[in-house]
Amino acid sequence: MRELDRLFERYLDRAWREAPTVEREVFLRLLDIEDDRLWHWFMGHETPSDAELDTLVQRIRSLPPAG
Q1: Are 42 and 34 in contact (CB under 8 A)?
Q2: Which of 4, 11, 37, 54 could form a disulfide bond with 48, CB atoms 3.0-4.6 angstroms apart?
């Protein structure tokens, strides 16, 4: 989904370089999740049961859009 790609690009552009190794590993795990599930998480309709994934989803959602 293009919208998810944009969210991930925003994270990669703004947070990846400074992210600790643990957070980077969680991001890589996030990439293995099916798009439909990711969409529900990022739209706030559901939350991941994994606390690390939930924290990262919330962090990515809170990044401001490109201006």
Answers
A1: no
A2: 54
Structure tokens at 57: 């989803």
Structural domain includes residue 56: yes
CB contact burial 39-61 (16+ within 10 A = b; e otherwise): eebbeeeeebeeeebeebbeebe
Check residue 64 and report its DSSP letter: P
| CATH code for position 58 | 1.10.150.250
Q: Look at the pTM and tell me if it is higher than 0.85.
A: yes
What are the tens digits of pLDDT across the range 25-63?
Answer: 999 999 999 999 999 999 999 999 999 999 999 999 999
